[in-house]
Each structure stands twice: as C-alpha cells, then as structure tokens.
Amino acid sequence: MTRNTSYSGWGRALRATGDITRPDDVRRVAATAPAIGNRRSYGDAPLNDGGAATDMTRIDRILSFDREVGVITVEAGMRLGELARILAPQGWLPAVLPGTGFATVGGAIAMDVHGKNHHHAGSFCQHVMALQLLQGDKTRKITPKTGALWKATCGGLGQTGVITQATLQLTPAKGDLMLVTEQRATDWDHHIALLDASTAPYTVGWIDATATGPSLGRGIVEEGETCRGLRPAPRAAKTIPLDAPHWALSGPIVKAFNAAYYRRVPRSGRTVVRPLQDFFFPLDKIHDWNRLYGKRGFHQFQCVVPLGQAAALRHMLATIARSGLASPLAVLKRMGPGRAGHMSFPMEGYTLAIDFPNRPQARRLIERLEDATVDAGGRLYLAKDALSTGGAIKAMYPDHPKWAAAAAKADPEGLLKTDMIRRLDLRT
Known about the structure:
Elements (H helix, E strand, L loop, with lengths): L1 E7 L6 E7 L13 E2 L15 E4 L6 E5 L4 E5 L4 H8 L4 E3 L10 H7 L6 H4 L6 E8 L2 E5 L5 H6 L8 E11 L4 E9 L2 H10 L4 E6 L11 E9 L10 E2 L11 H13 L6 E6 H5 L5 E2 L10 E9 L3 H14 L6 E6 L13 E9 L2 H16 L3 E2 L9 H7 L3 H11 L8 H6 L4
Helix pairs in contact: 8-9
C-alpha cells in the first residue's frame, strides 16, 4: 500500500511530504527509494521530502534462532525492544541496545547505534555477523569480510542498498530484570570519576544540565546488570495526547524538575530491581513524549569528544547551563573505541546528549556547541543531527571519502538519498 503523507523524524522540527510504501513481504520491497523504520532518528535522516520512501516496519519476522549459541536472523523491521522482550526470558539479549526499543534492526545498522555498554561491547554492527542488502533487483549477502561495502553499510545511513535482514550474535542475559545501582554524582569531576571507575556491564549518567557553580555536572550514575527474580508489578504506559504549550519546559520548570529528580536518589545511593525495558528504554513508557516540546518540536545535540578533552565538554555544559534552554533529558556516558563503519559515530571518550526546544536561541546555541566539538576533535551523532553543515560533518568523519565512494558505486543514480544526505551534501 502506498499513500502520500506528511511525516517527521522524532524531533518533529523538520518535516517531509511524499509517497510512503509499507510492504508486508520482503519480496515487495524495491530498492528504488530510501528505507525507513520507526523514524526514531531525530532530524532528517529518515526523511525524503518530495520523493518516495519504503516503510520497513512490517518486514519484521524472526527467521531463525539458535538458542545454544545465541545467533538469530531477523528481518530489518524487527524492533529491538520486541526482540529483547522475546529473548531475555530465554537467556539472551541483543548485544547492544540504544535508548529506545522502537528502533528497528535495519535502523540500528544504518546508524551503527551504541548503548549503555559501549565501553565494553562497542557498537551494534560489531555484533552483526551478516546481512542481506537489496541493490537494484538483486539481493546480496555481505559480512565483515566483504570489506569496503560492509564498512560503508554499517553506520552508512542506508545509502548502499536496502537492508532486508540481519544475523546477530546475541549476548547472554541472566533474566529479564535489571539489578541497578544508583549513585549521586555531586559535580562534574565526580561524575567523570564514577563513569571512569565503573566496571558494570551497563553504565549511564543522567546529568542536570541546569546546575551551575559548584554543582555543575551533578547527576545520577546508574550501573546495571541483568538478573532474574520476582517481577515488579507492570505499570501502564502513558500517552501525551496533545502538543504541550511552549511554557511547559520553561527554564524555571526544568530547573525545579531536575533538582527534584536529582534528590530522588539518597546521598548514600541505592540498589533497585527494575524491569529490563524500564532500564534500557525509560522514555518508551511515555508514548509520544516528543509532544512535550510543543508543535515546533525539538533538537537534540549529541557529541563525543576524546578522553583528553573532558575539559572541553565541561565548558560546553557550562555554556548550556547558563543558557537556560536545557531540558530534563540530558545524558553523559563513557565510550570505548568500538565502531564498525566509516561513518559510525563512536570514538573512545565521553558523549553528551541534551534536548532543546526548537527555538532560534537554541539553534544558535547548538551552532556554538558544534564549533566547540570540532575544536575538541570530536564528532556529532548523525542519528540526532538536524542543523549541522556538510563541511563540519566531513571534517569530523575522516573516512567520509571512502564511504562516499562506496555509496556512489552501490547507488549510482542516487535513488537512496534522503534530506540529510542532500542537506550535508554527503555523497560528494
């Protein structure tokens, strides 16, 4: 079925209108338009304004599963949260899980996503054993041994063909619950020290991006591991039915919320048991939470800087805190060196992600933060970007020429280009 519709990425600040086809069988998928999933990328990576797109979310079957060794083959539209729900009781999980369970396997490969265990496990595509790529009217199986095409496909923004299925090496799980230890980080140095010292399988820091002075960088560091036991009573998902008014995330409200959220963890810390989904995908419990930013939407700034540039990241955070524009959604993580593709985001260092309402002053602030990222030798995450320039992105990704050459060879007519590819002129 094909319908002409207006649609957006998760940030809702940029929109597109075009024909979207939603096939229910892989044999009906054509490699003549970009493939999209649940559009959890925040900017224009999943948009093709004025053109066609193929919605892969109904191509979502499990094709095979070897429980003994933890190897599974799934279609590209399979949601990672659904995969985790099915596999955890059987002792397995996808090796890398991003912050939302609505991301599809195909989207996770196209962005080479990372999770709360990147410091140990690397990126998503480092655990992909093989995938099938539809190019023109032919389907090609590729593996890490394929070479240039593999590196151009992993984190490659869907520009080398339509990913139709993937074989994943899973990671063992003790159960479908998480044993989570929460500690207060009192300031920036303490926050970084806790992240550096963590040996837990999964570690993430929530950071109060409104705190200033001696409290700059304060937050909560969560360390988790899978476990089994009595499952807590499930809580019904909530829905944001309407676009919130512009004042709902005003500076004073956000500051008060962040102070209360910080104090919810005792000074001495605590250990709790949570459902697995609540730990990995905390915001998925609030359907359409992006509507909290109002009808104009929002932008997320996410960068990573090398380990030796933590001071530069601290300076960025101070700039954000003084601006009064930050939302409650801010995350700090320690990353390892793992990445699978030429355009994969991760590097060994620290990554900071913060949401901002879509306002002129926020866009100007993000521009300053992007300049600071370039100066620090870091890079921006293309799954979140909606505002950068091609020159800046190409400077951040030194393997860009290799990727562009492989994409041009795989898609010489440019049929798979998206709004992001055109905005950043990435194919040249």
